[in-house]
């Protein structure tokens, strides 16, 4: 095996495939990257028991072949090579990389022990990569972190016709994002739970310049785009459905500008230590944010459009609230509040794009924006 390749191209390919390599594994070959050179192309692949990644790039093939080398060591070498064309070859039991006067020799791993790459399911359709990546990041903040409840650490990926729904919950919050995609045939219907950490890594690695093809079967999901391919094993089980939870009949509504609201939350939350809640008191044309007890306290009042009767005080976990607010990019944030210690819906709105108003005081508020919704459980105020 022998090939020549630009150093930056090789480094990028190795970094992309090495994302799925396990940090520690009882099977040494799973720490390896498989390099295959043929017909002017270099294919770099990596896998573990949960995911696989493969990327193809251009390379001058001198002698076709394949080799398995430790992926993280290969990446370290690629980063320090001079920025020139790199000559790579298998020489006995070593894989050599030469360029700009520098030369490295890496031990090769046994190919016979390397597992076969998982088969990619048939593609069901494609979705805009940038919109998909944004949607994943918006719901991933609500995914659980407790590995004892693995399904709750996943993101629901549901397909129904030309609608894709992404959802995540850790039982204390619930984020949902819907978007339009292009199914490859009529009647596409699928529902799966993908590990949130893996799906987030995949979404971040996508190029926004071309659509991503999506595949699902009973046990894995596949994502293909412009020379790259990733698979990930699905979780068993299913996430709770959100339709009933997201129905907040009789809620009081408030709206605030997102940027000053998020700034105020971050500022006041500085004194909210030990999980102490951040209090919102809505009244008139403003909302008062308060946090802290005894010696350390903070407060700030900001403008708000309040549709409730009289005054209402609710409280939130500051970290959960900041995660929710940070997942929106709309200029206006809308709260629907059922009361202290009850559900609260957070959505975004762009002024000037309102739909007809719903039943509410003075008909001030348009209907809820449903493409991105984040449900929080408020806590009982302590003030």
Structure description:
The chain has 383 residues and is of the alpha+beta class. The protein has 3 domains: 112 residues, DNA Polymerase III, subunit A, domain 2 (DNA Polymerase III, Chain A, domain 2, Roll), CATH 3.10.150.10; 111 residues, Roll (DNA Polymerase III, Chain A, domain 2); 126 residues, DNA Polymerase III, Chain A, domain 2, CATH 3.10.150. Helix content is 17%, strand content 43%. It has 6 helices and 27 strands. The protein is elongated, with a radius of gyration of 25 Å. About 2% of the residues have low confidence.
Kindly list the characteristics that best describe this protein.
6 helices, 9-stranded antiparallel sheet, 3 domains, DNA Polymerase III, Chain A, domain 2, single chain, 383 residues, alpha+beta
What Rg, in angstroms, do the CA atoms define? 25 Å
| Count of domain modules | 3
Largest beta-sheet characterization: 9 strands, antiparallel
Unreliable segments (pLDDT under 50, ≥5 consecutive)? Answer: 355-362
At the first level of CATH, the class of the largest domain is: Alpha Beta
Mean pLDDT: 92
Beta content: 35-45%
- Count helical runs: 6
Q: Do you know the CATH architecture of the largest domain?
A: Roll
